[in-house]
Backbone:
């Protein structure tokens, strides 16, 4: 049988904070009081803030120390490794999607650099004609020589 707490003070009880007693030296007590006064805080609030921030700081130091140790051993940081793997996978998916994007047209051009025909592997010298694929989405650069372009367009007209 589940217990019910219908008391009106239930929320108030959950909000109450615990009191922590600790023995400290006279010197530390004076340092805490001086620092609290300079910050305009009570000693209690200063100590609470120190404790809260220290746990986060210790956790960060431990994580950084582990990362430094892995680095010293030549091991990759697992967080960085996972991020790189996710980035590479995303790039791979994007490249696959772009390569699969249909070509909607061909742009004749005079080449400013050497290129290679995608179909026949003919070297297209700088200053010669070539045709670039225009895709629905950005994708790999596809260049065809005039001969392969003619075949490509001829095949398209035969459908």
Residues:
């Amino acid at each position: 049988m589940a217990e019910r707490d219908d008391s009106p003070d239930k929320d108030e009880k959950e909000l109450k904070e615990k009191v922590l007693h600790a023995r400290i030296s006279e010197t530390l007590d004076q340092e805490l009081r001086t620092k609290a006064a300079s910050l305009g805080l009570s000693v209690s609030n200063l100590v609470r803030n120190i404790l809260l921030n220290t746990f986060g700081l210790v956790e960060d130091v431990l994580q950084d120390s582990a990362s430094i140790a892995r680095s010293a051993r030549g091991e990759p940081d697992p967080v960085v490794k996972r991020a790189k793997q996710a980035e590479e996978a995303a790039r791979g998916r994007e490249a696959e999607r772009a390569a699969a994007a249909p070509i909607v047209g061909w742009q004749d051009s005079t080449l400013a650099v050497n290129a290679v025909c995608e179909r026949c592997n003919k070297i297209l010298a700088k200053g010669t004609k070539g045709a670039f694929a225009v895709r629905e989405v950005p994708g790999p650069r596809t260049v065809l020589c005039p001969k392969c372009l003619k075949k490509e367009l001829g095949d398209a007209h035969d459908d």
Q: What stands out?
A: Helices lie at 10-15, 26-39, 43-72, 78-100, 146-157. The chain is about 55% helix and 15% strand. The CA atoms of residues 74 and 132 lie 45 Å apart.
